[in-house]
Amino acid sequence: MIPAMDASYDAIVVGVGGMGSATVYELARRGARVLGLERYDIPHDLGSSHGVNRIIRLAYWEDPAYVPLLRRAYELWRELELRRGEQILVITGSIDAGPAASRTVAGSLRSCAIHSLPHDALDAAELRRRFPGYQVPSDIAAVYQADGGFVRSERAIVNYVEAAHELGAVIHAREPVLGWDAGDAGIVVRTAVAAYRAPRLVLTAGPWTAGLVPALHALARPERQVMLWVQPRRPELFRPGRFPVFNMETPEGHFYGFPIFGNPGFKVGRYHHLHEQVDPETMDRACHPRDEEVLREGIRRYFPDADGPTLAMKTCLFTNSPDGHFIIDRHPAEPRITLAAGFSGHGFKFCSVVGEILTDLALDGRSRWDLELFRLARFAS
Ligand SMILES: Cc1cc2nc3c(=O)[nH]c(=O)nc-3n(C[C@H](O)[C@H](O)[C@H](O)COP(=O)(O)OP(=O)(O)OC[C@H]3O[C@@H](n4cnc5c(N)ncnc54)[C@H](O)[C@@H]3O)c2cc1C
After folding, report:
1. Rounded Cα–Cα distance for residues 201 and 362 (Å)
2. Is 349 a pocket residue for ligand 1 (Cβ < 6 Å)?
3. What's the pLDDT tens digit per position in 282-325?
4. Burial label, 189 (beta-carbon count in 10 A; 0-12, 13-18, 19+)
5. Is the CB of 19 within 6 Å of ligand 1?
6. Ligand 1 site-directed mutation target among 12, 25, 49, most atoms within 8 Å of CB
7. What CA–CA distance (Å, rounded) separates 110 from 113?
8. Burial of 82 (0-12, 13-18, 19+ CB in 10 A)
9. 14 CB under 6 A from ligand 1?
10. Nearest C-alpha neighbor of 311 from the set 366, 268, 370, 365
């Protein structure tokens, strides 16, 4: 039986993962009475934000328009660290590498030029000399940018939730949202155990977004990913301080990776791993020899001193938009609902600033940021 409606909230946030935890915190910080609803544990390893860490980098090859948002994201991560007394950001420097004309290298240089970012353009020999974990062929060019590094993603979620609690937010885990209805008296959110009403709703449901907003079915598509940790043969070359995080375009795919941190071993992934569109309810979360093989291939060719025993593997989910840019907007039919989805494998570093933007949109109806790149209307044609 559904208990009586609880209508004591100013805002409800559905999904307390990366984006949702930052949003619950920011809403509470601005004085809103906020309820966060999460279907699994907090944190958990079935969505998009687990696996210790996520790369953050300023020389954004995807589009220079992200750079001002990144600057704000760094500021807000630092604020969270100060508030909580825990390190969330680890700065290692970042490498963007590939053929000189590749999107990764040319795009990274473009962002550096447009936003006057200090950087070093390296040829392969210089890259190998400065960071000997990288044993790349001579046709690889690289951009080193000293502000790159990673966000401790699971700790970021934990710390946002703890900070939100300190500010009076109410958060329920293990309470899946089944649906919502928008009416004159507010938005009613139904879960398996209760119904809640608030004047505004924020949807940050990651790979499950289309289940709550069917209109996003073709615009926020979950894709299976795999992360691999291996024991380097020469671990001293793969430690923070010696080994910057990287993105590298190669004929075998676009690899990314991290120095040893958190879990034992050197962590590597390949963007769009095996190009598997999946349903998060039914996807295969086991890891298989074929998953390891494609990642090993990259390690063997470009990081041979890391090619030691396997230590861990995990599956994870991207949620891809058609153009790879985020979706941050009002619900197409209901302006009291704000949504954020389609982070396309590069969203975590922005959680801190996305939490601020979603709070602006939910409370004030607008944000000081230029959100054109993220509007749903861009897909209208
Ligand atoms: C392998 C991998 C590597 C990545 N690397 C990077 C990187 O280096 N740098 C970077 O910036 N980004 C990276 N990303 C992308 C980044 O991790 C994601 O963009 C980000 O985690 C998305 O956060 P989210 O809040 O949208 O999703 P999630 O953190 O998954 O949160 C969504 C939450 O909503 C909950 N939920 C869903 N439906 C319901 C419901 N009905 N009721 C209640 N709760 C619900 C889910 O349980 C979940 O907790 C990577 C992603 C993967 C998978």
Report:
1. 7
2. yes
3. 999 999 999 999 999 999 999 999 999 999 999 999 999 999 99
4. buried
5. yes
6. 49
7. 5
8. exposed
9. yes
10. 268
